[in-house]
């Protein structure tokens, strides 16, 4: 039997609220190149949830184009993190509880300068690769 902290729960959603954007959602753990396809529990779900191995990197692929508004929550894994990569066509505004991570408010300092910088962060942060049009988000569990 595994200890509760050996895993964390990840919720991936669309902020736009269209269930078609999330079904199916593909979650790929890069270190082993394994992909899990998530469908949600009901026909009107706008989120997909999975139990993941924390402190690893994952790719997130939506059904078709990436929605304009995304939502990532990691929970049941205090002090654990997940680094998520998702295709995103333009530089994003990334918020935590409504606070702009690249801004000057209480959550400032969440915009990393490179992927290596993001990997070394010890808090929820992001980095946007403009050349590759990829958004990288490091999400820390809230509990």
Task: State the end-to-end distance.
Answer: 21 Å
Radius of gyration: 15 Å
* Bulk shape: globular
Strand fraction: 35-45%
Biggest sheet overview: 6 strands, mixed
Structure class: mainly beta
Count of helical segments? 1
Order of H and E elements: EEEEEEEEEHEE
Task: Report the strand count.
Answer: 11
Instruction: State the helicity in percent bands.
Output: under 10%
Task: Give the low-pLDDT segments.
Answer: none
> Could you report the average pLDDT, rounded to the nearest whole number?
87
Explain what this protein looks like in three dimensions.
The chain has 143 residues and is mainly beta. Helix content is 4%, strand content 41%. The chain has one helix and eleven strands; from the N terminus they run βββββββββαββ. The strands form three sheets. It has a six-stranded mixed beta sheet with strand order 3-2-5-7-11-10. The longest helix is centred in the last third of the chain and has 6 residues, at 115-120.
Give a summary of the structure in a few sentences.
The protein has one helix at 115-120; strands at residues 8-14, 25-29, 34-38, 47-52, 56-61, 70-75, 81-87, 95-96, 99-100, 125-129, 134-140. With 143 residues, the chain is mainly β. The strands form three sheets. A six-stranded mixed beta sheet has the order 3-2-5-7-11-10. The protein has a three-stranded antiparallel beta sheet with strand order 4-1-6, with no helix packed on it.
Topology:
Layout lengths: L7 E7 L10 E5 L4 E5 L8 E6 L3 E6 L8 E6 L5 E7 L7 E2 L2 E2 L14 H6 L4 E5 L4 E7 L3
Parallel strand pairs: 5-7
Antiparallel strand pairs: 1-4, 1-6, 2-3, 2-5, 7-11, 8-9, 10-11
């Amino acid at each position: 039997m595994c200890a509760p902290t050996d895993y964390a729960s990840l919720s991936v959603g669309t902020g736009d609220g269209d269930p078609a954007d999330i079904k199916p959602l593909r979650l790929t753990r890069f270190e082993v190149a394994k992909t899990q396809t998530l469908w949600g529990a009901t026909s009107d779900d706008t989120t997909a949830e999975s139990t993941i191995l924390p402190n690893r990197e994952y790719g997130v692929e939506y059904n078709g184009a990436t929605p304009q508004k995304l939502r990532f929550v990691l929970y049941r894994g205090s002090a654990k993190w997940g680094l998520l990569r998702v295709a995103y066509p333009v530089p994003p505004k990334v918020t935590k509880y409504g606070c702009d991570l690249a801004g000057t408010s209480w959550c400032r300092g969440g915009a990393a300068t490179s992927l290596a910088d993001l990997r070394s962060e010890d808090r929820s942060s992001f980095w946007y690769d403009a050349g590759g049009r990829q958004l990288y988000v490091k999400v820390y569990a809230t509990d």
